[in-house]
Request: fold
Amino acid sequence: MLKKQYKIISVGGSIIIPKTGFDINFLKKFKALILKQIKKGDKFILVIGGGGTCRNYQDALAKTTKISNRDLDWLGIYSTWFNAEFVRFMFGDHAYKEVIKNLTQKIKTNKSIIIAGGWKPGCSTDKDAVLLAKNFNAKELINLSNIDFVFDKDPNKFSDAKKIEKISWKDFRKNIVGYKWVPGKNVPFDPMASELAEKINLVVKIVNGKSLEDVKKVFENKGFQGTTIL
Reply:
């Protein structure tokens, strides 16, 4: 019998700690959903982003001193580690004993949950999640964000913005996120992650992490409200 593969999930920091502060009720429901799926036999690698916490630190630092993009990236990486430790503690004994910070690390564990944070400057945790998908031979990556869909332009600025339910990597990179990484830039999926995902033919499903019903549908390979990039 084949061992069940880990589901790779990039969890936006805004899902764990939004700008308004922790939503304890949501966190309890999110934890319950993951544990319920584990009882069904699922296994997860959760790659935790920095979100608003990361951007608050980066913005404040950039306004107080002249700093390189590399150092801004490192500050962002540190924020992902802190968020990831929070999630690891949240799942207790179900989670592997430490946050993965080195994506080349060989992990031998019978734990159903592995938590990872950022790794190296030059990309976001989206790229780290894609690398893990490659290393664990996963064909699909689930991106939990704070948006319902990817749009053809910013819906907060343009009333005629159109939602996108399915898009190719070529069009996504050309028309939505571009090809250059900027530390702390708020995009649906990191340009560097997109480049690698296209190269390895990875399917990425972007879903609003707050909509746990849709998250569950993605876990169960059912129709969901969100965007698929392939």
